[in-house]
From TrEMBL:
<keyword id="KW-0808">Transferase</keyword>
<keyword id="KW-0949">S-adenosyl-L-methionine</keyword>
<keyword id="KW-0963">Cytoplasm</keyword>
<dbReference type="Pfam" id="PF02527">
    <property type="entry name" value="GidB"/>
</dbReference>
<feature type="binding site">
    <location>
        <position position="122"/>
    </location>
    <ligand>
        <name>S-adenosyl-L-methionine</name>
    </ligand>
</feature>
<keyword id="KW-0698">rRNA processing</keyword>
<dbReference type="InterPro" id="IPR029063">
    <property type="entry name" value="SAM-dependent_MTases_sf"/>
</dbReference>
<dbReference type="InterPro" id="IPR003682">
    <property type="entry name" value="rRNA_ssu_MeTfrase_G"/>
</dbReference>
<feature type="region of interest" description="Disordered">
    <location>
        <begin position="196"/>
        <end position="216"/>
    </location>
</feature>
<protein>
    <recommendedName>
        <fullName>Ribosomal RNA small subunit methyltransferase G</fullName>
        <ecNumber>2.1.1.-</ecNumber>
    </recommendedName>
</protein>
<comment type="function">
    <text>Specifically methylates the N7 position of a guanine in 16S rRNA.</text>
</comment>
<comment type="similarity">
    <text>Belongs to the methyltransferase superfamily. RNA methyltransferase RsmG family.</text>
</comment>
<feature type="binding site">
    <location>
        <position position="59"/>
    </location>
    <ligand>
        <name>S-adenosyl-L-methionine</name>
    </ligand>
</feature>
<feature type="binding site">
    <location>
        <begin position="104"/>
        <end position="105"/>
    </location>
    <ligand>
        <name>S-adenosyl-L-methionine</name>
    </ligand>
</feature>
<feature type="binding site">
    <location>
        <position position="54"/>
    </location>
    <ligand>
        <name>S-adenosyl-L-methionine</name>
    </ligand>
</feature>
<keyword id="KW-0489">Methyltransferase</keyword>
């Protein structure tokens, strides 16, 4: 709790000035941001390797690092000023999370972070793009946890084909913090079940060519 309170203080002191949160968010940091993020821990298996994509102000990544020190956590953020903030907070709170600058869709980032157990994302992009960016970072059966709003079910249905094309299974909408938060956190959960259709097609084509070559 001491670490969470210090994170709250840091966001109050620097959040607006450094472009991390809007002015209207100061009075609802606990409910809307910190606790809202921390309850995502309910969905994380012990000792998971977790990537927080587009970490920004460190949400949900830093609350998760506080609540679950057993995690191997990487905060992925493309903007230099936000990367600097994340590194400062991790040092201030003596957390073990790692910060990397980059975007999930970049080749070198995918190579470094491939095989993760869980990818989290909060207010980053629609499910169509999230699936394309985040699912390749996961191991087979790994899970994408996308924090969403009231229209989560409609968005999931709308982007179902794109999620499947990116290698995702049938998603589901779950709520975290039920009984603890006045407004539970809504999360879209998508499991990685396959490689992308494009990649699978390349492998099938390669196999067909190999069979042809053996038959010559």
């Amino acid at each position: 709790m001491e670490l969470a309170e210090r994170l709250h203080e840091l966001l109050q002191e620097h959040g607006i000035q450094r472009g991390l949160i809007g002015p209207r968010e100061l009075d609802r940091l606990w409910e809307r941001h910190l606790l809202n993020s921390a309850v995502l821990a309910e969905l994380l298996p012990p000792k998971s390797r977790v990537v927080d994509v587009g970490s920004g102000a460190g949400l949900p990544g830093i609350p998760l690092a506080i609540a679950r020190p057993d995690l191997t956590l990487t905060l992925l953020e493309p903007m230099a000023r936000r990367v600097a903030w994340l590194q400062e907070v991790i040092t201030e709170l003596s957390l073990t999370a790692e910060v990397q600058r980059g975007r999930a869709e970049e080749g070198p980032v995918r190579e470094r972070l491939a095989g993760s157990d869980v990818v989290t994302a909060r207010a980053v992009a629609p499910m169509e793009r999230l699936a394309k960016w985040c699912l390749p970072l996961l191991r087979q059966d790994g899970k994408l946890l996308a924090m969403k709003g009231e229209s989560a079910a409609e968005e999931l249905q709308r982007d179902e084909a794109a999620i499947a094309a990116a290698g995702g299974g049938r998603g589901e909408v779950v709520q975290c913090g039920v009984g603890s938060l006045e407004v539970p956190t809504t999360v879209v959960v998508v499991e990685r079940v396959a490689a992308t259709r494009k990649a699978s097609g390349r492998r099938r084509e390669g196999a067909r060519r190999a069979r042809k070559d053996r038959g010559r």
